[in-house]
Amino acid sequence: MKRSLLLLSLLLVVGGTACQPTGERRPVSLREEITPAGELDGAVAFVRETGVGTSALYVKDLATNKDTEIPVDGAYVTSPAWSPDGSKIAYSATDEKDWTHIWVANADGSNAEKLTSGLSANDYPAFTTDGKSIIFATTAGEGGRWHLASIPTSGGDVEKLTSGDRDDVYPSVSPDGKSIAFARKVEGESYHLATLDLASGKSEMLTSGDHEDMFPSFNPDGKTLVFASTRQDDIWQLFTLDLASGEAESLIGSDSVDRFPVYSPDGRYVLLATDHLAIYSADGKPLPNGDLRWRLTEKPALAPAWR
Questions:
Q1: Nearest-CA neighbor of 215 among 231, 199, 229?
Q2: pTM value?
C-alpha cells in the first residue's frame, strides 16, 4: 500500500494522457501566455517533484511572482491546503517507513506537527471552515480502503466520516461548512462525485456514467463545483457542476490534460495543473486581456491551493 496506494488517483490521471482528443476544441495550449503582472493576488501553495519518489512544497506570492520552498519533513510531500485565515498549511508527507501522514504547520513551515500515525496512508487534507479540524482521506482500519476522516487541527482523536466500503478521496469542504464534496469509487474502478452531509452523516452521489470524475472543489459561493472528468473525448478536462440543477458543463475545451482545479478566493478564476500550473476564467470566457489561459509556473507542478 504505502505511497503506491496514495498515488492511485494520480496514476489514473497519468493514464489519461495517452488518450487523444477526437472532437473540436479551442486550442488554448497555443494561446497560453504568462500571467500579466498585477492581475492576481494572494498566494498559491503547490508541489514540485524533485526526483524519483521525492517532491518539495512551494508557495508562490502572486503579487511578486516569487516561489519560496517551504521546509517540511518527508521525502515525498503532497496535497497542501490552507487554513481559512491563511496562517497555517496542512499537507501529506512520507515518514521514515514511507507511509504518508497528515501534517500541519505555520505558513512558513515552522512549528510543524504530525497529526496522524501508524501503518496507513493519509492524504488530501482540507480544513473545516472554522479552522478547528482537518478532513482527510485515510486507509486506516479494517479493509484498508480509502475513507474520509476528521482530526482536530491541534491534534487528537480521529473521527471516521465514511464507511470505507468504497474508496473515498479528495474532500472539499463547502463554504458554509455543512457538507463535503469528494470522489467515490463506484461501478468497478470508476470514480464519481459525491457529497457528505456532516450533520446527518448521509452521502449522496452527484455524478455517474461511463467515465471518471475527480478532484472536486467548491466555488466560494457554494453553488457550484469545479472538477476534472474524462467524459469528453476520454481526456481529463475541467467541468462545473451546478449543485441545484445537477447539470454539468464544460468549463473550457483544451488540448491538454487538465486536473487539480481550484477556484480563486474571489471565485473569478480557476487554477489547475496541466503539467505546469495555469489559470482559466471561472466562467470559461477569455481572461481580462483576451487570453484563453495564463501560465502560472514554468516548471512542472501539482496539487495547487490558493489563498
A1: 229
A2: 0.90
